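quick one
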Amino acid sequence: MASATKQVTTNENFERYAYLFMRLSGIALLFLAVGHVLIQLILNDVHNLTLQFVADQWSSWGWKAYDSLLLMLAVPHGYNGLRNILEDYIHNERLMRIISVLLTVFVIVTVIYSLIAIITFDPASVPRG
Amino acid sequence: MKASLRVKRYNPEGGGKPHWGEYTLDGVSQNDSVLDLLHRIKWEQDGSLTLRRSCAHGVCGSDAMRINGANALACKTLVARLGSGDNVKIQVEPILGLPVVKDLVVDMEPFMEHYRSVMPFFINNDNVPEDGRERHQTIEDRERFDDTTKCILCAACTTSCPSFWANGKYVGPAAIVQAHRFIFDSRDKGAEERLNIVNEQFGVWRCRTAFNCTNACPREIEVTKAIAEVKMAITNGII
Amino acid sequence: MKPIIHTHDAIVVGAGGSGLMAALYASRGADVAVVSKLYPTRSHTGAAQGGVSAALGNNEEDRWEWHAYDTVKGSDYLADQDAVDVLCKEAIDAVVELEHMGLPFDRFPNGKISQRRFGGHTNNDTGKPVMRACHAADRTGHMILQTLYQQCIKNEVNFYDEYQVVDLIRVDDTIRGIVAIEISNGQFHIFHGKAVIFATGGWGRCWEVTSNAHSLTGDGAALCLRRGIPLEDMEFFQFHPTGIFKLGILITEGVRGEGGVLINSEGERFMEKYAPSIKDLASRDVVSRAIFLETKAGRGINGQNYVHLDVTPDTVNHYFKQDGYTDRHIDKEYIEAKLPDIADFTKTYLGVDPTVDPMPIQPTAHYGMGGIPTNVDGEVLLNNDTVIKGLYAAGECACVSVHGANRLGTNSLVDLVVFGRRSGMKVADYCKDAELLPLPEGSADEIMAEFERIRNNTGSVKHHDIRKEMQATMTENVGVFRIQENMDAAVVELAALKKKYVEEMSIDDKGALFNTDILEAWELGCLLDCAEVTAVSAANRKESRGGHARDDFPERDDENWLKHTMCYLQEDGSLTIDYKPVVIGRYEPKPRVY
Amino acid sequence: MASIAGLRTTLVEGVRYRGNIGHWSWVAHRLTGLGILGFLTIHVWDTANATFAPHIYAWSIDVFKHPFFGVGEVAILGAVLYHAFNGLRITLLDFKPEWWQYQNSSARWVWGVFILVFAPMGIYLLISIFTHCADIAAEGASCWVLPSLADYPLSDYRN
Ligand SMILES: Cc1cc2nc3c(=O)[nH]c(=O)nc-3n(C[C@H](O)[C@H](O)[C@H](O)COP(=O)(O)OP(=O)(O)OC[C@H]3O[C@@H](n4cnc5c(N)ncnc54)[C@H](O)[C@@H]3O)c2cc1C
Ligand code: HEM
Ligand code: SF4
Ligand code: F3S
Ligand code: FES
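structure w/ flavin-adenine dinucleotide:
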């Protein structure tokens, strides 16, 4: 007799996907965020950072895509992390629900606002100096 | 050799406040357990020192406490493990996250409630074999959940877990270990129900993989592994 | 503070294997409360290691009649054979039922419950050890306890955890309930019911070196004694041959079942001399005495009073060959898989890895064969043949008697499940028709006054000092080997200790909250009662039989002593002894050789 | 009685608990996560200014060149590196339960690799703060003075 595995179906629920999202986005961020930080801080000395530099980078759709992806993963990842932490320590369920809603709204606003900023950025508007 | 013990004392009766009791014992041997020393204090110096204990050899789970900062069973922690030299310093406190009733005794009810919540009992309503004898199980299937059958409900794991310290609603590693014991038993039919219970908001997802539980378990159960297996069973839909 | 009153049909006192089994069955027909001073899963049943016997014959031929014969022979013919038949026949069903409840037994390759050899269990045709002990690694008791507790949760049995029962309410020849203390706050409670089942376990703490938990203080037996119930065969207390030296922690007979052997300082496998045919797997009294004699003859290791238990593969395989077992061979991994907890104990407490080095062992006080007398339905006997209505007992605290003068390994767990179940069913049945008798006024007054007395007593003696003295005298005088003069001395000394207990003992903790000081003091009173009955019964029995071995009467004397001791506590505090005949069935007493 | 878990237990006793290395990894992961999040929030909103208010963006870039923020950036670099490596470790241990036995060694590896990667970069960045200040000092200004937004007219930054 060999040992057999069983199929099971379990309830869908938010926490379970949030958990998975943290891990999967984490792996993506391992490349995106670390890459971003290395490029910004090490390859380009911070002290040379100027608006001009941003203009140069965002003149390429590739970088725009990179930064958009980073944004869309890092912000939800970070705020879901924050929600986890707050949920640990805030035991008032109503208060916590309110906070969750606020955090969600904040994440959506932040991501949309920043996405618009990245996509609509026009390198030509920056004066060559 | 000598042992100097600092024991967290607290007796709310008559409005007492938590404080440290300091005790010195002579003629201590490397092979004495912390329970032996606490007994000596209780029997020779101060009968009001209060703790739970029964079996004295690590199988009943009564005397989980925080010894030199980390959770362990007093009866399974020998002086030799806490230090050498001729004056061993030992600090004993109650386990964390459960209300202290008196001295080293905590209220176990919140812990037991979590335990009961995962349906910690065998479920199989199918007819038993026709010959009236036992259900069969392969050696491999039996092995699959062997580790988690060892749990003695001492609470050392749950009360070492930072997630539990933060929020007592977290079902905790001990309850998940108990759920695991049945989920992975090939004879049991309640796996989905149990998985759904620990799939809730304060179920397995509260585990942050800190491993304090695994390190604290006096039965050397691979607690975090069991929790991760439950997480993966939910994630992959396969047990 | 007035006691709080609860009413249930039946009250089970104790939540070990027997209590839970009884509760489970009783709860199928009655409203049951389980009152236990420990959380159920902390009961000492959880410490049982080796196995639970049932003649399943999963790997080789076996029959329940063989099991019965082995049990009777092991008991040195003192067991009641009608009860033994019930035990061994129903063992099969009970074990299978445990499996159906989910108990994770180890398995044979064919998927059936795995069984191993154990002391005294034989194939009656060949006389060789038979595989009869069903086991879950070396934590069978743990799994039984867990499984039963789980089933009780499933069936929503009422639990009163950490309530210590301190009195039995008896009115004439009826039982009305019990009195208990809620340990966490010192509150007294009265549990009013139609039936009470005692399942409080043993009293091994009467001795210095014991395998028993600190909580095994004979409360149930003492309470019954104090309320006029006799205690049966208390002189028969089992010393398990293999306790860890000085600590008493048990090393299961399963070690020898897997091939382990006992070795003295001369490197000799001495059991060959004492039990030529089954050697190290002879029954416990025989092996304990052998170890005692070896150490007395100076062949203890390092001249001390212990010998070695050797289960290292080299030694074991060597003796397998010598014994002509061509098909048996073990290795390190096998030992680790079959005896993981034992390895853990010896590593923790001795720093010894049993697969590499032998373990230092000595006999350890282990199991009370005697106790509260019952019939095969768990009904308590008021005397030799009258049942007291509404009172039941099961498990180690009861004496059915299936163990007679010496219990075989694994037979206690069988006893728990078989007679726990029977008494549970009987109680459910009883509660259907019985009416709830009224609770007398002030049922708890007497015991509450006693606690006040202990709390306020002044004196210079601590309960621990008295306990130590009691343990010393019991070990010295009522141990593995006994002689008249010593036992008489013990009786005198115990009486003196009891006096001291009343007159000179004081406690430190006067509070109400979780006062273990006062409870330990009260438990000492129970221990003293059990010790005294044991000593008096032992001093009275002038023969050697099973666990009762005397230098001055080395032979078994069936003519005069094939009878059960019934010890009664009289109003004036004295103990008197009466006898009950032994039920003989298929097996006539004959000399016992292994 | 309910359980008495809460923030106080974590803050006071969490630090006193003598867990193994995994316990401290958890503490560090949480703190670095929060640290990064704080920075990220500012950073994201600030960067959006590059589109909507480029003069503010230019000003803030110069503010961030202050040595105080320079040190902060080193800390953020460290936090990101540690959090990333440990995040990978946690994810692997969750996805591969049977690797649990490497819990301690993997935690040590994470700390080790983190220090190896972070130390040279951190030192490099700290040195560059000094050289930056030295350069500015050579021009007769001070790196300790924060720029004023008034000096950044929008017209300079948008065509
Ligand atoms: C180390 C060890 C190993 C053993 N191995 C085996 C083995 O392999 N096979 C075998 O067959 N037998 C074995 N035995 C023997 C067997 O385990 C015991 O005899 C048996 O478990 C006793 O069970 P019980 O239900 O009678 O009592 P226990 O399990 O001892 O339970 C007693 C219960 O009574 C409660 N209680 C006691 N006093 C009070 C009170 N005053 N008020 C309220 N509650 C009270 C306790 O809380 C507890 O719940 C072993 C025994 C020991 C000590
Ligand atoms: C660089 C790669 C990153 C990886 C691999 C990673 C991985 C992870 C993982 C796996 C978790 C889940 C921990 C848990 O649930 O126990 C987590 C939590 C968290 N992460 Fe990240 N993360 C990364 C980047 C970031 C970034 C950029 C931020 C900030 C925005 C961030 C903020 C957080 C926060 C606040 C938590 C919650 C911490 C906690 O619950 O204790 N992480 N991270
Ligand atoms: S898993 Fe281990 S630590 Fe946790 S309750 Fe069970 S035995 Fe105790
Ligand atoms: S300590 Fe807690 S966080 Fe998970 S690994 Fe153990 S349950
Ligand atoms: S006293 Fe039983 S586990 Fe320590």
